[in-house]
Amino acid sequence: MTLISRSILGSVAACAFALPAAAQDYCGGQVASGAWIGGNEANSDITSADDYREQLALVLLGNAHVSLFSLSAPTDVRIEAQGRGTGDPVIELLDGSGAVVGSDDDSGGGTSSMAMLSLQPGQYCMRTTSYDSAPLTATVRIGRSDQEALTEGGMNAGVDTTDTTDTTEPTDNTDTTMDPPPLDTAMTDTDACGGAMMLGSGPVDAMLDAGVSATNSINSVPTYAFELSSSASLTLTAENEDADPVLTLTSEAGEYLAENDDYDGLNSRIDMTTPLQAGTYCLQLEALSDGDLPVTVALTGYDPAAAAMALYDQGEVAPPLDGSYPITELGALAGRTVTDAQMSGDTANWYSLEVTQTGLLLIEAIAVSNGDPVIRLFDDVGREIGYNDDYGQGLDSQIAARVFPGTYLLALTDISDSSPRLRLVMERYVPAQ
After folding, report:
1. Percent of the chain having pLDDT more than 90?
2. Which stretch is the leader sequence (predicted)?
3. Does the predicted model carry a pTM greater than 0.70?
4. DSSP state letters, 214-228
5. Would 187-302 and 317-429 be classified into the same CATH topology?
6. 54 to each of 93, 106, 131, how far by Cα in Å?
């Protein structure tokens, strides 16, 4: 008699029967369709699942694979994607309202992606895309923190390997190489988090509106601590792209809460939309580039409006068409339209266009001067229907998408270190009669 292990049988069943969910809007309308990670909705409750759930993701033409799952109770969840061959997956997690609650690239080890999150009950959408828009085949796994991990990073997540032996004098927070940060830099020594530097001279609750921060190199201060006297939703950032910081949040006992790398360029940001309870927390930093450079770590209260505005500025989420965010109107798209754009830093240029007939829309972003454009196309309710960076052998971008009559939004960003002039070329093709 042939025996099949439970874990293999469970994985095969999840992959073989991960059929697309019936077409409808998920995650606040940000996702039009996806596949339940457990094959159906009932089998995709990670809270009660007897084992992790797994899918095979096939990503083509700059699109995304969407894995749907739910939680019936507060749960510590691990999401992972591991590419096959040279594939480089990027993952992003949306909650039921469509807000991005987590994202990652490469924290799984190598080119694999991994994030561990403490999530509340509800439905969630995990989007897997290809980092360079090349065709991607990847294994996607969603499970609890107590279940088997897929990636090397997932196996080691939550393990604090930082040497906390302090052999140096506390670093002076006054940094002569950078402009002083605008936030309160009060810090004290503490026994919390293995002798970490404390942000603030006590509970930071009263400082959250103005914020509290400190600037030091990661090699000199790899861990900070802060204290809350009541529950609060927080935003935590680590900034200096030349250092490429990775930011990890844990409880004082070492419980993993969240991690981020490359939220804004190479800077890191964690939005704890679910309030943290009163207690002491630890911020651990790692420099993927230069650990001797000064990195500014800041802690503020979470501002939903500011967080949404930041996503609009990055071109990752479509702004509303109500005039509250600047959008250049291009009107009805003719057969071919050419538009030049002067970029300013990392902020996206947004365009709206009207399509009057069903057909194919071809969009190219070309660097007139030295630049590295990225484009994203959304429909009028904010669903992403196209994305590309580095089409072909160069740094220019191209999207080809089937469109229907209606309004579309296009985000143009540049990820080079300059503020180049870019050229948008849009061509519309209609079916032969």
Report:
1. 48
2. 1-23
3. no
4. EEEETTT--EEEEEE
5. yes
6. 16, 19, 21
